[in-house]
Amino acid sequence: MAYVFSPESIPTSPEEVLSWIQAGRLAPGAAVGVLSQWTGSAGAAVGREYPESAKETSVDAVLDDLKALVGLGDIKRVVGDIRAFVEIQRLRDEMGLVHTPQSLHMIFTGAPGTGKTTVARLLGQLFKCLQVLPKGHLVEVERADLVGEYIGHTAQKTRDVIKRALGGVLFVDEAYALARGGEKDFGKEAIDTLVATTENHREELLVILAGYPDEMAWFLETNPGLLSRFPIRLEFKDYTATDLVHIARHMLRERDYTLSGDAEINLFTLLNHNEGHWHKNAGNARMVRNLLEHAIRRQAVRLHARQIPLSRHDLMTLSWTDFEGGSGD
Amino acid sequence: MELLVIGRPHVGKTLLMINFAAYLGMSDIRVEVQDSDGRQMVRRLTLDRARRELVSLSTPKTAQVHSLTIEVTSGRQRSEILLVDTPGVLEGIAPDSRDRQLTAQTIGRLMRAAMVFHVVDASRVKSQCQEAGESFDRSLWQFGQRRKGYLLVANKVDRPGSHEGLKFLRDECRGITMIPISCATRRGFRELKVWVCRAIP
Questions:
Q1: Which residues contact A219 (CB under 8 A, 6 or more apart)?
Q2: A158 to chain B, minimum CA–CA distance in Å?
Q3: Element (H, E) at B196
Q4: Looking at residue A263, which CATH number applies to its domain?
Q5: Cross-sheet strand order for the sheet of A206-211
Q6: Which of A200, A192, A194 is closest to A170 using CA atoms?
Q7: Hey, CA dihedral for A90, A92, A97, A100, is it positive or negative?
Q8: Cα torsion at A238, A244, A248, A249 (round to 10°)?
Q9: Domain assignment of residue A288, yes or no
Q10: Could you tell me if B110 lies within 8 Å of chain A, comparing CB atoms?
């Protein structure tokens, strides 16, 4: 121990090293030397706050997170299926049975605000826990990140993005925009590159194409190879009125607000009454959030006008009068 | 996520932090100052004012741990990074107990940070390392070989003598990523940004 100034003893924990520095028993260079001995072997002392090690979640924890999402019954079932498939494949592998190569690329279709991005993030984590993907991070891109400005630029740009996503999930939001420019558009080149590389990196990359239902249907028609290369299709249905009220309650709890009795009943009636009649891009969960944010502002105005002192209950409660008048758009 | 800037006094840690923020397109910085009792104070400074107030040529100015939040955008992903500037770490055991306390604080942060910029003065690193047998810089880069998210930043490459310094560093630190930069001429910041984007876990 050439580093240490009092040779009879050496510090045994990082905390001790720090207190030794403070007490003047250890020079900073020596301290780093001592600390670096622990870096390689025991990860406990160093890198406690590394996002990766902190995220040592189990498969069940990720599935619990997924279960905690409101609605999305079909999606949860499909994800459960995929999990079973992956685990059984692993067991088969251990027994020396033939390993079926798996293509897990997916297409997410759904109206705005139905949880596509949220589910994509969870899937990344899930596949990491299942050791299908080495890193399990999510790279979220859109048309502008893939399509270049001049001939030849696009393929290079797309390849860069894929390189960044290797080992994790590549989530292409509004994927139909890639085909929207017509025949001469560079978007086609991006699709071709994407399709080619997804085949080559099947084991280490999960590609998810997401978009609105009608546009995605048209997008898949434009490129015949796409449909077969993305075998798993998840359809995010619009939330039901009950789901939306659940979501509203959850959002409000996060912000320390509650609904008064009449507000809850009337909100449910409003959502229930309109179920199936919303404009198709009304926004689902996002629409609920906008409604609530508007109500929160109205509540502030209502309370501000009152002269009597306000209780905690008053400050927390949204009544139906705050909602009346819609979201003001 | 924390990015810690560490190094000896007068290698340009604070100016690196300010200029890096400027390179990323920030017009003013919110400097969060944490004093030794752990109280947080926030000051809002324009970049010019920050350079005037936080950087000096002669006396060590950074006497506290500063931090500021930057946003790095690559594609659609935004990552918030807390840039943490530390007081320079003196060689050997400091006689003053306050200095020792700051050193302990700095090294404590070093253990927790996800990314580390270890800044050295390219024009002087050779002589500094040859004077002292076991120097702080040397043990830091040995430490860097064992962990992820460590970058050796060779600052002041515009200075005379930096050429030998860089050669010395290349020989000494094999297997460590090193980026030569100059805060005065703003050289090398692009590479820093690329490195940060890649190192984000």
A1: A175, A176, A178, A179, A209, A211, A226
A2: 11
A3: helix B189-199
A4: 1.10.8.60
A5: A138-141, A169-172, A206-211, A106-110, A232-236
A6: A194
A7: negative
A8: -140
A9: yes
A10: yes
**Other C-beta atoms within 10 Å of B66: how many?**
24
Helix (H, G, I), strand (E, B) or coil at B152: strand
Question: A318 and A189: one domain?
Answer: no
Residues A71 and A207 in one domain: yes
The residue ranking higher by pLDDT, A328 or A99, is A99
What are the distances in angstroms from CA B20 to CA B17, B68, B79, B122?
A: 5, 11, 15, 18
- Residue at A114 is within a domain: yes
CB of B184 within 8 Å of a chain A CB? The answer is no
Question: Does the CA dihedral A273-A275-A276-A280 come out positive or negative?
Answer: positive
Are the Cβ atoms of A19 and B2 closer than 8 angstroms?
A: no
Q: Please state the ipTM of this predicted complex.
A: 0.73
Q: Taking 80 as the threshold, does the pLDDT of residue A79 lie above it?
A: yes
The whole domain housing A154 covers 59-236
Tell me which CATH code domain B2-199 carries. Answer: 3.40.50.300
Q: Do B135 and A29 touch (CB under 8 A)?
A: yes
**pTM > 0.90: yes or no:** no
A164 shares its domain with A72: yes
pLDDT digits (tens, 9 = 90+) for A152-185: 888 888 888 888 888 888 888 888 888 877 677 7
